[in-house]
């Protein structure tokens, strides 16, 4: 990490393949495109990783909140359905995705706790980032 709250991700793709090796701190990931789009399906697509980040961030946020409050949250599971309306633009890569986030919680929670967890789910950092505008500065070097 270079500064508080920041990290560097490195992705590398070689000629002749969409398979991409990604490094996040000491973790190695592989991303790719499905065979139907010319990839070898060696890993999730970058868009699927965004959906995975939303699901994971939601479950982590709810777990942290419930643990901090001492609530009896036994399990939390998030499913994300990422839909892209290609009809509006004619190009899926430029269309705005819509994420359907379905969260299931279990444990002896009362109605007020469940209602609060529903609110907290919409406040996870990835959820807020996807809803808001994100600034991206691109630098290209040779």
Summed up, what is this model?
The protein has 142 residues and is α+β, with helices and mostly antiparallel strands. The protein has two domains: 1-43; 44-142, GMP Synthetase, Chain A, domain 3 (2-Layer Sandwich), CATH 3.30.300. The protein has three helices and five strands.
Q: Which terms summarize this structure?
A:
142 residues; alpha+beta; 3-stranded antiparallel β-sheet; two-stranded antiparallel ribbon; 5 strands; 30% helix; elongated
Write a structural description:
The chain folds into two domains: 1-43; 44-142, GMP Synthetase, Chain A, domain 3 (2-Layer Sandwich). 30% of the residues lie in helices and 25% in strands. It has helices spanning 46-69, 111-121, 125-131; strands at 9-13, 20-24, 27-31, 75-84, 97-106. A hairpin with a 2-residue loop joins strand 2 and strand 3 (27-31). It starts with 8 loop residues before the first strand and ends in an 11-residue tail after the last helix.
* Strand line-up across the major sheet: 1-2-3
The biggest beta sheet reads: 3 strands, antiparallel
Indicate the mean pLDDT. Answer: 89
Treating each run of at least 4 consecutive H or I residues as one helix, how many helices?
3
CATH topology of the largest domain: GMP Synthetase, Chain A, domain 3
Percent of sequence in beta strands: 15-25%
Strand elements, count: 5
Number of domains: 2
Low-confidence stretches: none
The CATH homologous superfamily of the largest domain corresponds to: K homology (KH) domain
Q: Helix coverage percent of residues?
A: 25-40%
Cα-based radius of gyration, to the nearest Å:
18 Å
Distance between the termini: 24 Å
Class computed from helices, strands and strand pairing: alpha+beta
CATH-derived architecture of the largest domain:
2-Layer Sandwich
User: Which CATH class of the largest domain applies here?
Assistant: Alpha Beta
**Shape designation:** elongated
What is the H-and-E element order? EEEHEEHH
């Amino acid at each position: 990490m270079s500064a508080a709250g920041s990290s560097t991700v490195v992705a590398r793709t070689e000629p002749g393949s969409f398979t991409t090796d990604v490094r996040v701190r000491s973790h190695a990931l592989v991303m790719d495109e499905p065979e139907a789009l010319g990839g070898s399906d060696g890993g999730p697509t970058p868009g699927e990783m965004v959906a995975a980040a939303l699901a994971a961030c939601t479950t982590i946020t709810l777990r942290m909140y419930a643990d901090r409050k001492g609530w009896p949250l036994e399990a939390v599971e998030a499913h994300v359905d990422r839909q892209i309306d290609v009809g509006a633009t004619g190009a899926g890569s430029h269309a705005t995705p819509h994420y359907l986030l379905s969260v299931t919680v279990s444990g002896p929670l009362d109605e007020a706790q469940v209602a609060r967890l529903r609110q907290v789910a919409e406040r996870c950092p990835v959820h807020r980032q996807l809803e808001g505008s994100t600034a991206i500065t691109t630098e290209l070097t040779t």
